[in-house]
UniProtKB/TrEMBL annotation:
Superkingdom to which the source organism belongs: Eukaryota
Keyword Glycosyltransferase: no
A Gene Ontology cellular-component term: nucleus
UniProt entry keywords in alphabetical sequence: ATP-binding, DNA replication, Ligase, Nucleotide-binding, Nucleus
Protein name: Os01g0685500 protein
Entry's localization field: Nucleus
Organism: Oryza sativa subsp. japonica (Rice)
GO MF terms held by the record: ATP binding; DNA ligase (ATP) activity
Length: 129
């Protein structure tokens, strides 16, 4: 049922227990790491978007442990403002990031919108679903 805000929504639960999840205002990303260490990023429509996020590719390569050879993560990439205490930015602000092309990534030093990645599902890891 559509409501006009949080207060009205809480009234509908009438004291019953419930859980909720924060909705991040970012870009959906499916992040693939292959056995050879390469990383590919796909949009919700499964369009290749690796060139748009060279900083994310670098994070994945840097943070992966030796025990994890391959995976597929379902995540939300959100813009953050580090100067304002890592404040989450709007989708529109994230969308203002430069877009790389299929043949060349944007240069990391030219990135003006930093990102944070919220992983919400590990779909595949080391050959297991």
């Amino acid at each position: 049922r559509i409501t006009n805000g949080l207060t009205q929504s809480l009234k509908l639960f009438n004291g019953r227990a419930f859980t909720c999840e924060y909705k991040y205002d970012g870009q959906r990303a499916q992040i693939h790491r292959s056995n050879d260490g390469s990383v590919q990023i796909f949009s919700r429509q499964m369009k290749e978007s690796t060139s748009r996020f060279p900083d994310l590719v670098g994070m994945i390569k840097e943070l992966c442990s030796i025990e994890v050879s391959s995976f597929i993560l379902d995540a939300e990439v959100v813009g953050i403002d580090r100067k304002k205490g890592n404040k989450l930015m709007s989708f529109q602000e994230l969308s203002s990031r430069e877009r790389g092309s299929k043949h060349s990534s944007i240069a990391i030093q030219n990135i003006k919108v930093d990102i944070c990645v919220f992983v919400f599902d590990i779909m595949f890891c080391n050959g297991q679903r």
